[in-house]
UniProtKB/TrEMBL annotation:
Underlying gene: lipB
Catalytic activity entry: octanoyl-[ACP] + L-lysyl-[protein] = N(6)-octanoyl-L-lysyl-[protein] + holo-[ACP] + H(+)
GO terms, molecular function: lipoyl(octanoyl) transferase activity
Pfam family, one: LplA-B_cat
Protein name (record): Octanoyltransferase
Domain of life: Bacteria
EC code: 2.3.1.181
Function: Catalyzes the transfer of endogenously produced octanoic acid from octanoyl-acyl-carrier-protein onto the lipoyl domains of lipoate-dependent enzymes. Lipoyl-ACP can also act as a substrate although octanoyl-ACP is likely to be the physiological substrate.
Alphabetical list of PANTHER family matching this protein: LIPOYLTRANSFERASE 2, MITOCHONDRIAL-RELATED, OCTANOYLTRANSFERASE
Length: 248
């Protein structure tokens, strides 16, 4: 159902600004610092300004509050031998494998100022992912009782959101075209869903730029932002290249 906004409400929505940082492969710790600074700035501003970080990460496994050692297919020694670090982080969801070819999306939104509750926020993220997948030619749905979004071939995206002082951070991750061997380092049996990617579902290479453009557009639309300046660099950013060794 479309809700008609009054002239005052329309003007109010048009004043909303979301700064979008379209970044490359970014060190995970650097993104944590950027998010923390953005949260602090939004807390001081007390307005509807938002920040959206879009990037990829060098290989790393993070484990959220619902995760456990059982989700790691290999031992810590095996992962260390493959130069894959394991980090325990304060976000929702379980274990997530980060790697180039996976799109990491971090919306930093002032939920209180936007009048959005936690469940509504998560639902809007899920619907943005599903809409993006449809544009790529993939039928997707939310898996009941889990934090994942799945296609006919398995789970290709997962939410790992967190909220501090009613400001969102962390976000979600979309497997666009990662090395499928690396995905085997995560055991998804917790939800009984195997991990896959958009490329594997489509049986062709999915376009990272197309997925990135679509997910940004869908997020901006669902959260009612109009002013969306885009940046491709950040002064505090540390871009890295890291070799990956996988034992098969």
């Amino acid at each position: 159902m479309n809700i008609e906004l009054s002239p005052i409400e329309r003007a109010h929505h048009q004043d909303r600004t979301m700064k979008i940082y379209m970044l490359g492969c970014v060190d995970f710790d650097s993104l944590l610092v950027l998010q923390e600074r953005a949260v602090q700035e939004l807390r001081r501003a007390q307005n509807e300004t938002a920040v959206l970080f879009i990037c990829e990460h060098p290989p790393l496994i993070t484990v959220g509050r619902e995760g456990s050692h059982a989700q790691l297919s290999g031992s810590y020694q095996e992962l260390k031998a493959g130069q894959i670090e394991v980090r325990w982080v304060n976000r929702g969801g379980g274990a997530i494998l980060h790697t180039p070819g996976q799109l990491a999306v971090y919306p930093v939104l002032p939920l209180k100022q936007l009048g959005i509750g936690v469940q509504d926020y998560l639902s809007r993220l899920e619907q943005a992912i599903i809409a993006m997948a449809a544009e790529q030619g993939v039928e997707a749905q939310v898996q009941p009782g889990s934090t994942g979004i799945s296609s006919r071939c398995g789970q290709f995206a997962c939410l790992g959101a967190a909220i501090k002082s009613w400001i969102s951070y962390y976000g979600f991750y979309i497997n666009v075209s990662p090395d499928m061997k690396l995905l085997r380092l995560i055991d998804s049996n917790r939800y009984d869903h195997r991990l896959t990617s958009l490329s594997a579902t489509l049986t062709r290479e999915a376009s990272m730029s197309s997925v990135r453009e679509s997910i940004v557009r869908n997020l901006v639309s669902r959260f009612g932002y109009r002013d969306t300046p885009i940046f491709t660099r950040h002064p505090l950013l540390n871009r890295v290249k890291k070799k990956v060794y996988v034992h098969t």
